[in-house]
Design brief:
6 helices, 156 residues, 35% helix, alpha+beta
């Protein structure tokens, strides 16, 4: 049984987003989360390079299914540099999604743990995220707790 778990672990490793991930279904995966229009190869490369230039402050992690070669989970964290808390840093987790065909494999928890660990490793004093009421229990299982409320104003 331990060998099977080890094989599963190897099959679903968390890693940083790579330029080639666009062709592995990354954009299609994001569409399972929210509105995500077509992204040209050039636009994807431009945004990828922009994020690479700010790598310490913005990370996108993915899990690729070794069998299919498809990206089956993703999430991002950006680091806010603050004046409060002795010029501290806060991590903001965004855009967490697991492919509908890969749910139940604990991939969401793997992504959340990796994003949280990254924020902690760069000195964040907290990590925050927004989620739907339907996802509250999942994030509580990942060690998060509800605090206050979220407000938003969209420009489009």
């Amino acid at each position: 049984m331990e060998k099977m778990a080890s094989n599963e672990e190897q099959k679903f490793q968390v890693r940083k987003l790579e330029l080639s991930d666009k062709s592995k279904g990354f954009i299609e995966l994001l569409r399972q989360l929210t509105t995500c229009d077509s992204v040209s190869d050039k636009d994807f490369e431009d945004r990828f390079m922009e994020l690479q230039s700010r790598a310490e402050d913005h990370q996108v992690f993915v899990i690729e299914d070794d069998r299919s070669g498809k990206i089956v989970a993703t999430g991002s964290v950006f680091i806010e540099r603050k004046f409060v808390r002795n010029c501290g840093k806060a991590g903001h987790i965004e855009d967490v999604v697991v492919d509908s065909n890969a749910r139940g494999l604990h991939l969401g928890k793997k992504i959340i743990n990796s994003l949280t660990d990254y924020a902690h490793s760069v000195g964040c004093y907290k990590v925050i995220l927004d989620c739907s009421v339907d996802n509250k229990a999942f994030y509580e299982k990942c060690g998060y707790k509800q605090k206050e409320i979220q407000m938003v104003k969209y420009f489009i």
